[in-house]
Amino acid sequence: MTIFDVVRNALLAGFGVQEKVREFIDDLVKKGELSESQGAKLVKEWTEKADKSTSDLSKSISELVTKTLEKMNIPTKDDIETLNKKIQNLSVRIKKLEGIPEGSETEE
Predict the structure, then answer these.
(1) What is the mean pLDDT of residues 41-68?
(2) What is the pTM of this model?
(3) Sequence-separated (6 or more) residues with CB below 8 Å from residue 100
């Protein structure tokens, strides 16, 4: 199971819990134990807390992945693009030095 799967399952479970909380609060309103405004307020508060928790979890996972990749010393997409540009520039310079016209294809 990948980190993505764990996060996905956690989020889906969170959505299931959120739906159950709404149903529970709706039942309390129907039974008259809460007013509609109190129920709406509780749903809003719980939703805001759930959203914040989801955001915090996402941020934590992102930071963890970034730190792990840094420790593994894996080049980023930007690193690879920079190296590709340098290789292209060097190829052009070599072709000029060898007298090969630009746009000519040679074995690389």
Answers:
(1) 83
(2) 0.45
(3) 106
